[in-house]
Amino acid sequence: MKLDKFILLLLLMIVLGYFLPEIGTYLPLDSISTYGIAGIFFFYGLKLSPSQLKVGLSNWKLHLLVQTTTFLLFPILVLLLYPWMKTEEYFPYWTALFYLAALPSTVSSSVVMVSIAKGNVPGAIFNASISGLIGMIATPLWMALFLSGSHGDMAFGTIFLKLFLQVLFPVLLGLGLHRYGKMWAEKYKNALRRFDKGIILMIVYNSFRRSFSEGLFQDIPWSTLLSLGGTVIILFFLVMGISKWFSQRLGFSLSDQITAQFCGSKKSLVHGTVFSNVLFTGMPYAGLYLVPIMLYHAFQLFYVSLLAEKYGQKNSGKEVSSPTKP
Fold it and tell me: How far apart are CA 242 and CA 258, in angstroms?
């Protein structure tokens, strides 16, 4: 397994935020992030195929399980920790975990891993795509339950307006222009992927440089960060196990079981980073909210890559591609 270069670049942004925070004072990072986010989701909509989404609706049992896992099971599991972490000392860490739990699934990595594992690729494409759209509403609604009480100055009407202008409207605009721009988006997909990652890296640097400047991480012991990482990994395996159990009980084909596990257990670093730029603007814990999703992203890439290879070798030559009938 090669160490993912993007993970290394994320770590580099954190290091730069610590040692060279003054770089951000010479660049219009807030404006670049705002317009960059809109660009990411415009190109996301441009690459979405309305016809594929329409066809994908037929396998509703698989989609229901994946979206329920993503937006209900994840938050409920983290909510179980709330009674022990609602104190002033631990609440910021719990909120960061809950933010991870409320995020949508990934798009590209889910589809790639399902393909390697010989799962239901059309089902993965549909669920990864629709998850991002649902997350534009579900994620801020989940976060509003707790952040509105702890941050009285948060105006969620303003936040939803920002999400609409920076996320939903660009997606809808791109989706409307899909028939005209799909060939261009396919031709320059590698450049668009680099653009996405560049904006994410910039947002991560900006969040952490502010957090370091405000002394956020000075009082956080390493034991707490390690506990946070351990909790993230336990959460991952819990969701993987539960989604596998339900997919088997529902009589899914092997290909749909793979898709349910891989898509349901993933969380999107792209959405986590860009949503944080809207939801947590001006908050003292902005950098902390990104820690669980970065840890989760790194671990899910590592473990699911190994699992996908294992499934792919095991299922080589088998007929696993037929989806579950609705």
Answer: 13
